[in-house]
Amino acid sequence: MLATMVVLALVITSVIAISPVVDFGDVRRTVLTHDRLDGVPGSGGEGYSYLATSQSGAPVTWACEAIIEVEVNPQGAPEGYAELVASALATVNEASSFTFEVVAETDDRQFFDRPPGPVLLGWASEEEVPDLVGPVAGLGGPSYVSGPGGARSVTGTVVIDTDLPRGWFRGMDEEAVLVHELLHVLGLGHTQESGQLMAARHHGQSELGEGDLAGLAALEAHACGTS
Ligand SMILES: [Zn+2]
Questions:
Q1: Which first-to-last residue range defines the signal peptide (predicted)?
Q2: Alpha-carbon distance 53 to 176, whole Å?
Q3: 20 Cα: distance to centroid of ligand 1 (angstroms)
Q4: Measured between alpha carbons, how far is 178 from 184 in angstroms, rounded to an integer?
Q5: Quick check: helix, strand or coil at residue 30?
Q6: What is the pLDDT of residues 182-204, one digit of tens each?
Q7: Which residues pair with 69 in a beta bridge?
Q8: Ligand 1 centre from 119 Cα, in Å?
Q9: Ligand 1 geometric centre to CA of 38 (Å)
């Protein structure tokens, strides 16, 4: 039997900023409920979906060619986590024009309601982060601000479950889980196509599929105004 795990998205959204100038100090954020973790129905394209869209239907993502700072909280991390994180980030960076960059280690554990700033990447128990309950291997998603000009991601979270049964990752690719969550941070939702890394359930796929890559390209095109 193949191990199956669920790699859910977590989106921490903002609500509309009324002023044409986005007021970062007045961003309200809401954790979406589970039935919205799979992305916006009908959004995206073949093999991919968008985690969130603006009213125009454009995906919520980062600024064009954004350099996205990441702070790593090593509490509860597996041995060799630094290499694991570096490898996952390199995989995503090579596949997109967005660039994740580890800037520091931190003891920050504010996985939710984060103010604009570095993405927090860490490990947590189900007790600390109840949404990691059951077979959920990790959560990932952005926070974004929105205004008349659209929406833009300004921070995010990746949190990996430390309560997975011993050996859970055996035969599976722990790095793939991180890459999956990082693609949520960039703005991709789940796809129904099981061969993609952004499928909600992991069946051993360990590399980015064509749908994943098409989704990243679509995010970039929207971010850079070339779509
Ligand atoms: Zn997911």
A1: none
A2: 25
A3: 32
A4: 10
A5: strand
A6: 999 999 988 888 889 888 776 67
A7: 101
A8: 17
A9: 7
- Residue 72: exposure state from Cβ atoms within 10 A (0-12, 13-18, ≥19): buried
Of the pLDDT bands very low, low, confident and very high (cuts 50, 70, 90), residue 116 is confident
- Distance of CA 220 from the midpoint of ligand 1 (Å): 20
Distance (Å, rounded) from C-alpha 139 to C-alpha 47? Answer: 20
Length reported for the chain: 227
- Nearest C-alpha neighbor of 121 from the set 169, 85, 173, 78: 85
- pLDDT band for 47, please (50, 70, 90 cuts): very high
Between the CA of 139 and the centroid of ligand 1 the distance, in Å, is 7
Question: Domains, the chain, ranges and CATH?
Answer: 7-223 (3.40.390.10)
Residues with CB under 5 A from ligand 1 (ion): 7-9
pLDDT digits (tens, 9 = 90+) for 132-154: 877 778 888 888 877 666 778 88
Cα–Cα dist 218/203, whole Å: 25
CB distance 17 to 4 below 8 Å? no
Are 24 and 106 contacting, i.e. CB atoms less than 8 angstroms apart?
no
Cα 6 to averaged position of ligand 1 atoms, centre (Å):
7
Rounded to whole angstroms, how far apart are CA atoms 155 and 185?
Answer: 8
- DSSP tag of 53: B
Q: From the CB of residue 133, how many other CB atoms can be counted at a distance below 10 Å?
A: 11
Residue 39, sorted as left (phi over 0), alpha (psi -120 to 50) or beta, turns out to be left
Q: Does the pLDDT at position 226 exceed 90?
A: no
